[in-house]
């Protein structure tokens, strides 16, 4: 069942692991089939290098396991994934990582401002990456905690925990999670350079909204091909 979607889950879960966004069995990934509303999700406690698509668990939106071919249980953070699908129309993929710089800011409950332009690709309507209130992993409180921040953004820090990123497709959700980590690292470095608790200059929301791919790309006067 849903073989192609299961293969996507394995591909991007492994890519996340190899890129260092979530190691040691942490983090979890899912995709929703828009036709059946069934969700393919990573199993709990498995090394991703050993993961095959047969291990990916299929659940419905009521958290009932519909298929677990190799008998693995779904990730303990399944309720959070299902909550996203129930509350964000058009979202078919969730990536959840524990990347280090982003998680450090989540511990401080410090939203990440628009220090560089990439934030324009993250659906941050208010020009910053919000922080979801703490919810104990595996509980309904954790699932509830991401609802509000994901109303104003496609990505959020999760207090004292990690990062969540959502999109129509898993490849893009993972890319967003990677951008969050990159922004967090750049923000960390600028804070370090400035010191004394000073905040760096940020790109204003009006400027972020004006971004569009240029209508035509021309060489500047004097430039050669
Ligand atoms: Zn987690």
Write structural notes for this entry.
The chain has helices at about 5-20, 80-85, 100-105, 140-145, 170-195, 205-210, and strands at about 30, 40, 55-60, 65, 95, 110-115, 130, 130, 155-160, 160-165. The protein has a single domain, classed as Class II aldolase/adducin N-terminal domain (L-fuculose-1-phosphate Aldolase, 3-Layer(aba) Sandwich). The longest helix is centred in the C-terminal third of the chain and has 25 residues, at about 170-195. It is about 30% helix and about 15% strand. It contains six helices and ten strands, in the order αββββαβαβββαββαα. It starts with a helix and ends in a 16-residue tail after the last helix. Helix 3 (about 100-105) packs across helix 5 (about 170-195). The strands form two sheets. It has an eight-stranded mixed β-sheet, sandwiched between helices. With about 220 residues, it is an alpha+beta fold. It binds zinc ion. Zinc ion binds near residues 77, 96, 98 and 161.
């Amino acid at each position: 069942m849903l073989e192609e979607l299961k293969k996507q889950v394995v591909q991007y879960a492994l890519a996340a692991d190899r890129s260092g966004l979530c190691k040691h069995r942490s983090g979890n990934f899912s995709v929703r089939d828009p036709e059946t509303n069934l969700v393919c999700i990573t199993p709990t406690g498995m090394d991703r290098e050993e993961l095959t698509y047969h291990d990916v668990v299929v659940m419905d939106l009521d958290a009932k396991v519909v298929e677990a071919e190799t008998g693995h249980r779904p990730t303990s953070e399944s309720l959070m994934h299902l909550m996203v699908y129930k509350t964000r129309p058009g979202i078919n993929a969730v990536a959840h990582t524990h990347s280090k710089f982003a998680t450090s800011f989540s511990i401080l409950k410090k939203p990440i401002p628009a220090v560089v332009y990439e934030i324009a690709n993250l659906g941050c309507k208010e020009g910053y990456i919000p922080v979801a209130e703490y919810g104990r992993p595996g509980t309904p409180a954790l699932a509830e905690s991401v609802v509000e921040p994901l109303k104003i953004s496609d990505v959020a820090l999760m207090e004292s925990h990690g990062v969540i990123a959502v999109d129509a497709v898993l490849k893009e959700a993972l890319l967003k999670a990677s951008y969050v980590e990159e922004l967090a690292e750049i923000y960390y470095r600028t804070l370090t350079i400035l010191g004394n608790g000073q905040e760096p200059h940020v790109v204003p929301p009006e400027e972020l909204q004006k971004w569009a791919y240029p209508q035509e790309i021309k060489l500047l006067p004097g430039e050669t091909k």
